[in-house]
């Protein structure tokens, strides 16, 4: 079937004809449920019955802005990433049923019994397994695609399948460039204009961001998810699934860590509004977020080191000093990229509901400025922090009541 954009009508018939999930005569209903910036997402379910499936289809451009190039092939990248995630991180990513290379459509497991983490956190829910699962997911998905966890020659061949220039360009522009100058697609609330423009004049900050951008563009350290924010993670109290890896490419591991860490801090700032009526509950929830922030790093660090000790035996690489140096660099990268991810969601294109849903402009501005100040310190001090406690101390210092 040549490429055509699906509608609710055609997606329903597509699911009937192209999957073996439903009996032929099943009465099906279909709803477009995509709330992301790029794709169409359809949920097809039996009207009476429990069977259901998700179809995710690429559009030939970004859904949020059709002037932004986002080629159809991202669906192939996503489907191949999901296969690898299922292999290396069992149970921590959605299962795919089928990839249609002509329709650029992925048919996958329906996770409607889960909630998108961003939504759950805005509502003030806690997820006790999140740190354990995401720390393990990042450690395993990246380690097995580094030069330490796979054969370096095979890695170079694998890299060819995950060259993702247009989606990398979106990140290079929206995360690592545009927030630091007067770019046309920035979105800056009038109340924080002065603070946002301070960053544009801040040559020291821009130098550090430029070093992170260079790393993003040049360090093919491992196959990374590329967009692991709280909108790319489904959760229940018991389970965690990292989805939407269409930005996947061989890049710096710290970028995935920074995405989730930075988005936890965005939520932390936003609770000034969402939990405005209960200071004690807000304080407790913020402690949960900061514990999760710390624990994601700790679990990642523990798992990555264990994999290293189990698999790295070559003479140069198995030097224990190299392991320590490697982990210290990942830590600094994670904090630096977290700062970049936080800043872009305050002043750039594609902001986050945590902050955007705050209707009170004064409270929103306070939260936004706390994020920008924290982010700046993350980026500037990333190589001098000695522990996660010191990083958390920065968050607490800028925390508004
Ligand atoms: C034009 S795409 C905007 C953003 O949506 C995705 O989730 C990525 O974060 C991207 O930067
Ligand atoms: Mg996405």
Q: Could you characterize the architecture of this molecule?
A:
The protein has helices at residues 8-18, 74-88, 117-122, 130-143, 152-161, 165-174, 193-201, 203-218, 253-274, 279-311, 320-347, 353-356, 361-381, 388-398; strands at 28-32, 40-46, 52-57, 96-100, 105-108, 115-116, 222-224, 233-235, 240-242, 249-251. The N and C termini lie far apart (57 Å). The chain is of the alpha+beta class and 401 residues long. It contains 14 helices and ten strands. It is globular, with a radius of gyration of 21 Å. Strand 8 and strand 9 form a beta hairpin. Bound molecules: 5-S-methyl-5-thio-alpha-D-ribofuranose and magnesium ion.
Report the CATH architecture of the largest domain.
Answer: Alpha-Beta Complex
Uncertain runs are none
Q: Termini, distance in Å? A: 57 Å
| Major sheet description | 5 strands, antiparallel
Strand order within the widest beta sheet: 1-2-3-5-4
The average pLDDT value, as a whole number, equals 97
What is the number of beta strands? 10
How many discrete domains?
A: 2
Helical amount among residues, as a percent range?
40-55%
What Rg do the Cα atoms give? 21 Å
* Quaternary class: single chain
CATH homologous superfamily of the largest domain?
Answer: Aminoglycoside phosphotransferase (APH), C-terminal lobe
Structural class: alpha+beta
User: Which band does the percent of strand residues land in?
Assistant: 5-15%
Question: Which ions, cofactors or small ligands are bound in this entry?
Answer: 5-S-methyl-5-thio-alpha-D-ribofuranose, magnesium ion
Shape: globular
